[in-house]
Amino acid sequence: MSPILEYRDVSKVFFKGKTQVHALSHVTAEVGDGELLAIVGPSGCGKSTLLNLTAGLMQPGTGEVCYRGRPVDGVNTHVSYVTQKDNLLPWRTVAENVALPLGLGGRRMSKAERAERVAHYVRMVGLEGFEEHYPSELSGGMRKRAQLARSLVYEPDVLLMDEPFGALDAQLKLVLQAELLRTWEGTGKTLVFVTHDLTEAISLADRVIVMSARPGRIRAVEHIDLPRPRDVFGIRFAPGFGDYFDRLWSALRADLHQGQEI
Ligand SMILES: Nc1ncnc2c1ncn2[C@@H]1O[C@H](COP(=O)(O)OP(=O)(O)OP(=O)(O)O)[C@@H](O)[C@H]1O
Ligand SMILES: [Mg+2]
User: Fold this and answer.
1) What is the pLDDT of residues 38-76, one digit of tens each?
2) Whose CA is nearest to atom 31 of ligand 1?
3) Residue 173 shares a structural domain with residue 195
4) What PROSITE patterns has UniProt attached to this entry (predicted)?
5) Are residues 117 and 200 in the same domain?
6) Domain count, the chain
7) Is 189 domain-assigned?
8) Which atom of ligand 1 is nearest to the CA of 163?
9) Residue 175: pLDDT above 90?
């Protein structure tokens, strides 16, 4: 797999008055075209920062983030980003929110094409019948689905997701993970997602990167060679799953003594 994303010795320091926060330190990694990569690590270790850099929302202090070999030096329009915070526009309906990215970047698309594309992705995430609802009229899980549809509608080469299912109940989480896998396995697109849930990381990903406590460095990388298509409901009982879990957990545990939570 040729890399679609490259992080070359990336460091990032935030300044707030006289205090400095070293968010990332010398991160070097590649993401293959079509790969599904999970990033796990203690709270505050720079995971969202890494996604923000990938989306071009901020620049690294030192080092480079490259998309298909070129440094990302502005908003990266090839990626779509489901941010940690819900950012649906409250005054727009589901259909209008989902259609939003299609109006950006000067894309020429007829009204009919647009409507068809929106309907397709609304259906894909199971929100049919809720097109005219406003975000405040949706449940938490439905809002996540709407965000997912809005990210997919753009048909990006890379989808970034920051703890997409973090706040959801266990059952809904499994259902949405299954939907995500079904969607992703059909497209061959690249997916990079952050999670605090090791089971989720192993169930979905081709590879899991474990980051250290701040300043975030890459502590371990685990290739998940479980066969696809995967069944998120049963995969935790698959041979090898427990070994992956143990190895990832030991890598994460290394930072627990520093009082960091995962
Ligand atoms: N825009 C910013 N300005 C100043 N400091 C920031 C900014 N963004 C992040 N930070 C700091 O950088 C560090 C890493 O933040 P980041 O959001 O990347 O962590 P994270 O790994 O995503 O954590 P969590 O798991 O809690 O979401 C934190 O200490 C945070 O306070
Ligand atoms: Mg975060």
Assistant:
1) 999 999 999 999 999 999 999 999 999 999 999 999 999
2) 44
3) yes
4) ABC_TRANSPORTER_1, ABC_TRANSPORTER_2
5) no
6) 2
7) yes
8) 27
9) no
